[in-house]
């Protein structure tokens, strides 16, 4: 019997796949547990429509992420940090501080978890901070660390 999986099933397949299983396994395990539905023409058409909708939503999300990346790359954020003699700083600048400064200065709500600092910012200067907006889109935010 052909079955469309509604959820990931270990050692059988991923959600949305059409798999062939024995009639008993389908009747006694897959269908009662709502792990899948029988692959009738109606269910196949529904799956096709769901896939088309998911592709459309994914394309829109990618386009939105690219537009936001262009906007982010034109902005610069100034972060103030205390420093002593010779420009040596007390502590370092975290992604939380960068996200708060970006929200305050540019109005953009960036997630601190999506920022990736290759190493801690412990000196004054200009830094490029990568912000992962989408699995395929990463923007570079210009961060100016100044004495404050």
TrEMBL record:
InterPro entries: Ribosomal_bL9, Ribosomal_bL9/RNase_H1_N, Ribosomal_bL9_bac/chp, Ribosomal_bL9_C, Ribosomal_bL9_C_sf, Ribosomal_bL9_N, Ribosomal_bL9_N_sf
Keyword RNA-binding found: yes
Domain named Large ribosomal subunit protein bL9 C-terminal: residues: 64-147
Function per UniProt: Binds to the 23S rRNA.
Descriptive protein name: Large ribosomal subunit protein bL9
Family: Belongs to the bacterial ribosomal protein bL9 family.
Gene3D superfamilies: Ribosomal protein L9, C-terminal domain (3.10.430.100), Ribosomal protein L9, N-terminal domain (3.40.5.10)
Gene Ontology MF, one: structural constituent of ribosome
Highest taxon of the lineage: Bacteria
PANTHER family named in the record: 50S RIBOSOMAL PROTEIN L9
Entry-linked Pfam families: Ribosomal_L9_C, Ribosomal_L9_N
GO cellular component, one term: ribosome
Keywords: Ribonucleoprotein, Ribosomal protein, RNA-binding, rRNA-binding
Any GO BP: translation
């Amino acid at each position: 019997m052909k079955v469309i999986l509604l959820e990931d099933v270990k050692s059988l397949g991923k959600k949305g796949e059409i798999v062939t299983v024995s009639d008993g396994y389908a009747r006694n395990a897959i269908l009662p547990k709502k792990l899948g539905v029988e692959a009738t023409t109606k269910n196949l058409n529904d799956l096709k429509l769901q896939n088309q909708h998911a592709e459309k939503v994914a394309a829109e999300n990618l386009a939105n992420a690219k537009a936001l990346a262009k906007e982010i790359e034109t902005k610069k954020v100034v972060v103030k940090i205390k420093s002593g003699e010779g420009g040596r700083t007390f502590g370092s600048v975290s992604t939380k501080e960068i996200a708060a400064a970006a929200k305050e200065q540019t109005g953009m709500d960036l997630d601190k978890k999506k920022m990736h600092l290759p190493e801690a910012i412990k000196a004054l200067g200009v830094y490029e901070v990568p912000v992962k907006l989408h699995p395929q889109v990463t923007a570079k935010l210009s961060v100016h660390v100044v004495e404050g």
